[in-house]
Design a protein that fits this description.
Helices cover 34% and strands 22% of the residues. The protein is an alpha/beta fold. The strands form 5 sheets. The chain has a 7-stranded mixed beta sheet. A 5-stranded parallel beta sheet has the order 10-2-1-14-20. It has a 3-stranded antiparallel beta sheet with strand order 5-9-6. Helix 1 runs parallel beside helix 9 (215-227), helix 2 (64-72) crosses helix 16 (445-455) and helix 4 (137-145) packs antiparallel against helix 5 (147-162).
């Protein structure tokens, strides 16, 4: 019997357990240990007062692996697809302005005219200097597209996606597609145009949710996995990990102890934990990478969920939402408009907004009281949507470790980790230790599912 223990019951851990269990070797035993009281990690759907609200990720960007997983879980009938033509907005001079998605966004009026002209010269911008193996997001956008584009696009994207400081956030690790585009083609725009010409007919990636919220994905993963024999233990705080042992006596390569004293043997251990917890538990087994992994910081976020009742349908916010450059007089990192994206699951006449506060550039915001955060969020929503009507619902949730902060040079840390893992796994037919998570494989749900599909056959 092969014993596989997965540390963490978020999207990565649950997807990996389900996918591995679809074609297990005879007698495989798969256990997921989740320290919290419910599975799903950052997937947190609230169903209150007839509303479906997301306190964690708000949408799922579909990848081929995600499409396959949704089909395997028989969730196709639950999928709600966002209109790909729905506008996105960026605040400039106190007003939300529409911005197109993709290369055409350079021509959007959300960007000052002079900044647009400079951005169009991106194909002729100087390449990064020889020997430069990483760069802050702000510097990358400034060098390739100009300072105006860096302020109105690069900065808001860095804070909106990663809640991080664009002057310290790694381009190579946080936005590897941009970094690789310059490496391949010498230009981000040239690479994008080349990809369009060579891709041929293809189906566009969908942005989706589910009728009862994104937590449906975690709930279905748990139900189907448990039905097939996977065990999911909740409130299982991990205290210690011993090993690796040679496993010759049948006791397992690892021994994982949780807070109630139970010890679980494992032949393969999979960590989806945050970088600090992982490095602390396995410190002596990671001589090259542990010290650097222990310094990976996390941004705190406050999520303010609100419902309004506009008098007229046209007064409700529309589109995906708005990103807010720093210096525009607003504290929100961004405001999302889920009632516009998925109107099928919203009561008639109700507009939902989600405001995000905190991150690396405003770390004290989550310390505000719930009342102060509600007041602040409502005021900023009204500034951008004056006719939105009375607020009929408000709720605040706080995430103490919302998103990893990936500093310049983070790829070198991952390189050291790869060396440590290679040493641990050397000589074994199946890996003894596998590591995944947002700090290693990407922050998007689609990215995590894609990585889980890649890893499942290797366990």
């Amino acid at each position: 019997m092969r014993r596989i223990v997965i540390l963490g019951g978020g999207t990565s851990g649950l997807a990996l357990a389900f996918l591995r269990n679809q074609n297990p070797a005879p007698g495989d035993d798969i256990l997921v240990l989740e320290e919290g009281p419910q599975p799903g990690g950052s997937l947190r759907t609230l169903r209150e007062e007839g509303l479906i609200l997301e306190a964690g990720p708000h949408t799922l960007r579909m990848t081929p692996a995600t499409e396959r997983l949704v089909a395997s879980l028989e969730l196709d009938d639950e999928v709600l697809v966002a209109d790909p033509r729905a506008p996105r907005w960026i605040v400039r001079d106190g007003r939300a302005r529409a911005v197109a998605f993709g290369p055409a966004g350079i021509l959007s009026t959300a960007i000052p005219f002079g900044a647009r002209l400079r951005a169009l010269r991106e194909p002729f911008a100087a390449l990064r200097a020889t020997g430069v193996d990483d760069e802050p997001v702000h510097d990358f956008f400034s060098r390739r597209f100009g300072s105006g584009f860096a302020r109105y696009v690069g900065g808001p994207v860095a804070t909106g996606v990663w809640a991080d400081d664009p002057r310290t956030l790694s381009t190579r690790s946080a936005f590897p597609g941009l970094w690789e585009a310059e490496s391949r083609s010498g230009s981000v725009l040239r690479d994008a145009l080349k990809a369009r010409k060579t891709a041929g007919p293809r189906s566009a990636s969908r942005t989706v949710s589910f009728r009862n919220g994104l937590a449906t994905l975690a709930e279905r993963l748990v139900a189907r996995s448990q039905r097939a024999g996977v065990r999911v233990e909740l409130n299982a705080e991990i205290l210690a990990i011993e090993g690796p042992f040679d496993g010759a006596d049948g006791g397992g390569t690892w021994k994982v102890q949780i807070a109630d004293g139970t010890v679980f043997p494992a032949d393969t251990l999979v960590s989806t934990l945050d970088a600090g917890s992982f490095s602390s538990l396995l410190e002596t087994r990671l001589p090259r990478s542990a010290s650097r992994l222990s310094t990976v910081a996390y941004s705190r976020l406050a999520v303010v969920l609100q419902a309004f009742r506009p008098e007229r349908a046209k007064d409700a916010p529309r589109g995906f939402g708005v990103l807010i450059p720093r210096g525009e007089g607003l504290r929100s990192l961004g405001i999302l408009y889920l009632s516009s994206l998925f109107p099928q699951r919203v009561p008639e006449g109700v507009a939902l907004t989600t405001s995000l506060f905190g991150g690396a550039l405003d770390p004290s915001a989550p310390d505000l009281t719930e009342g102060d955060l509600l007041k602040l969020a409502e005021g900023e929503v009204r500034k951008l949507n004056p006719a939105i009507g009375p607020r009929v619902f408000g709720r605040v949730l706080k995430w103490p470790t919302a998103l990893p902060r990936l500093p310049v040079g983070h790829h070198a840390t991952l390189g050291l980790l790869a060396q440590d893992l290679a040493e641990i796994n050397a000589g074994s037919e199946r890996p003894r230790l596998i590591v995944t998570g947002s700090w290693r494989d990407g922050v998007g749900l689609g990215e995590r599912i894609t990585r889980a599909e890649e890893l499942a056959p290797t366990l």
